Amino acid sequence: MDAIILQILNGLDKGSAYALIALGLTLIFGTLGVVNFAHGALFMIGAFCAVTVQRILSISFETVDPTKTDFLGNPSKISTPYVEHWFGPEFGATIIDWSVPIAILFAIPIMILIGFVMERGLIKHFYKRPHADQILVTFGLAIVLQEVIKYYYGANPIQTGAPMVFRGSFDFGTLLGFDPNVIIYPYWRLVYFGFAALIIGAVFAFLQFTTFGMVVRAGMADRETVGLLGINIDKRFTIMFGLAAAVAGLAGVMYAPINAPNYHMGMDFLVLSFVVVVVGGMGSLPGAVLAGFLLGILESFASMTQVIDLIPGINQIIIYVVAIVVLLTRPRGLMGRKGVMEE
Amino acid sequence: MFGLDKKDTTLLLIVAVLTMFAPFILNPFPAGSGMAQFNAGYPDLMQRFVIFGIFAIGFNILFGLTGYLSFGHAAFLGVGSYSAVWMFKLLSMNVIPAIILSVIVAGVFALIIGFVSLRRSGIYFSILTLAFAQMSFALAYSVLTPITNGETGLQLSLSDPRILGTSVSADGGIPVTSLFGIEMRSTAEMQLGPWLFQFNAGYYLCAVLMLVAFYLAIRIFRSPFGLMLRAVKSNQQRMNYTGLNARPYTLAAFVISGMYAGLAGGLLASMDPLAGAERMQWTASGEVVLMTILGGAGTLIGPVLGAGFIKYFENIFSKINDNVLHSWFAFMPDGLEDLMVTIVHPFVGKGWSLTLGLMFMAVVIFLPGGLVEGGQKIGKMFRRKKAVDGTPSAAKTPAE
Q: Is the interface score ipTM higher than 0.90?
């Protein structure tokens, strides 16, 4: 029993990341009808926003402390971050410690801007082209973004710590009446799950309860008619692209402490996220979220030693096996709509 | 000739001449001169040109004709490599059985994957092939380690049985791959003034096989079968309504292109007898898509051009470092020289992938038909110019 709960918990954080990326992918696909292979790169850029903010906050100046000397006898240099200098040592240190949550504020405008530029500058010209062309051009873009990041940040993963408060682990088992230290779960992953749930809820609320969201949903259902009613649907879809980019970016920012960001993390997640989208059903937002969590949890169950002993290697391929079975038995995915990508 | 019309025969002959004289053509600069770094006439690179040419020709039979975009073709290349290396380990170092087995195994593999994947089309097909390829990649890394030797990659060793050959060569090392005694690595050199030309046995084997593959591709393109595949691409629904089942045709195309990939994998292993799982990774599948698109999908010569283009520039660009750049811009004033070097630096050396990505985007955006379409456009431009300002002079110069 405790093992099962532990695996469900373990699956939640990866599932959250899958769900967020797949949500963005589906938003773009549902609104603009574009298959965006550069979406993983947006996730990666989000993670590097966290890295950048941490670096900016830790920019330091050096002062010479004449009272102390290093082992060569020279006066030793002390580097003080500007933030600590301006806000006092204690508050400054707290700001640096909380750089990842701060990066969220920084990432939202940047990601929306990147989304706008991408849509207006490149993807706009591909609406009328075949899906294969869309896949190829966004694939090319993903390579370019990835290489640019690699050029500036290097090829090695960069550790980006969560705030001190969240670094420990939470003894989940005691809450449910198990012995202590049976079900331990890092705080930050709990935060990640809560954050993902919040974002997913916000996106759905935005689409469901605002006029803007209503128009967008109408546009997803029948773009032409909405256009004929005198609504500039293209402009709204561009905004949705920006929103989808921001969702991917935020997923990346918060993921940075879980897995040290490197330049190819986007590609690694992209392949799986596509599988998630297809399993959930192209164009179905609830499907994407459901499939994201489902596959995340299945993956963590498949990594249990008992399961691996039974079917060796299952943890590596479970997601693909599920994808193949789902596609062959339910061709539209779990919750796919009729008439989306049928031809 | 060989059942081809005049135009195709010319094309085949041009390709044949180009591949046969490649050691000369690719070596235009004397050895040791400043431009020698642009030479591509050494065996290793030439082998890769033709091998990836075969891979891309095969991919084009599927993607170019039927429009089914497979994102998992590298799996067949990897399977081919593994089977070839196993043949070297168990049977003999002769490349013929190895290549035959790799083609057959890749074909069977393609039959299974294709049978399942082709039940869906469009993006679903791409994802299914991608899923299968990633599955093979993950399995090759983990569970199938007894067969694939995991991360290290499958290599030959002195303790291999090699029933028809010898486990250990006369000098106590691992025997080398050969074709009835002709060693694949043996290279004849020709010194011609300052030029050094290398003729490698392995390269010529690959080149001959590529010509055969190219010839077969032409025949497929021109056959009723090829026409059927084009019909799948242009309107599958209409084809179904006329009472034709498209599935057997697409499956046949998938298996054929899988066998091409297997041949390429077998040749890779024959030239250098080792096989690793990274050959099956989805980036490798992406590369063959790039080659085909860059050259021109659906054209005969396009994929070969694309493969050569990418492999050449990959090799040349990644060798350029800051010193080379400085020597290029040395004629400029110092400040400007440094500026130019700083500008160009991110795109060369390790930044080759960036250049590739940009180039690829440019091709998809501006030249959906690839290099072949670009060539045709330029050709048309010249012809039109001639037609406009050439009319009065046409009387003086005889028609070409």
A: no
